[in-house]
Amino acid sequence: MKAHQLTLNGATPHRTRTLPTIGGNGIASSDTNELNLQFVVKYREAAKHKQKVFETEEEAIEFARTKNPSFRREPIQETEAEASARVLLECTNKLRAHGKTIADATDFFVQHLMANEKSCTARELVDEFLAAKQKEAASQFDLDDLRSRLATFSKSFNNHLVETITSTQIDDWLRSLNVSVITRNRYRRLIMLAFNFAVQRGYTSSNPLFGRFVVSRAGNC
Fold this sequence. Notes:
Layout: E1 2-7, E2 14-18, E3 37-45, E4 48-54, H1 57-67, H2 80-96, H3 102-118, H4 122-135, H5 140-157, H6 167-176, H7 181-201
Parallel strand pairs: 1-3
Antiparallel strand pairs: 1-2, 3-4
Helix pairs in contact: 4-5
């Protein structure tokens, strides 16, 4: 639990903010890891140091002014350490709701970054895939079919990293084509082959089209 201190020293009152404390000062800790606040007024009375704890800032200020009418409220400024601690606590609570920890989130994000670093763009994938098919001595008909249909895909997704392209994005794009179901699924099969190639080369961890089928009403070929 965090505590704000309102300190009264003679006629020149000022306020400082303290880090969360537990134990001897009588400020309770939080069992729920929530951002609970307490406000502590420290003052001198009869030559003795005293303090009083309040649940709200308004109550603390009202009491401080009974001890020193000239007390003035100043904005509370977070230190860098306090801001970092607050963000850490907020993220921890959000992850805990899903049964995850900061370590889990860090591992996941680092894996995501590493995958992106190894990835390539849709345009680069299509170029490399076509070059590989040429080396495999694919027929000219197949090469022309691949080049024609994958060029359309490459033009739409261009500089998107293949690791970040989702099945939903591809499905939406396929459905936007003004072609028949047969032609649309031909596009889908060729794109799936290109992504299989991407998985083999380590450009993406999975094929977003694996096991998915496009269903739509037929249009013009």
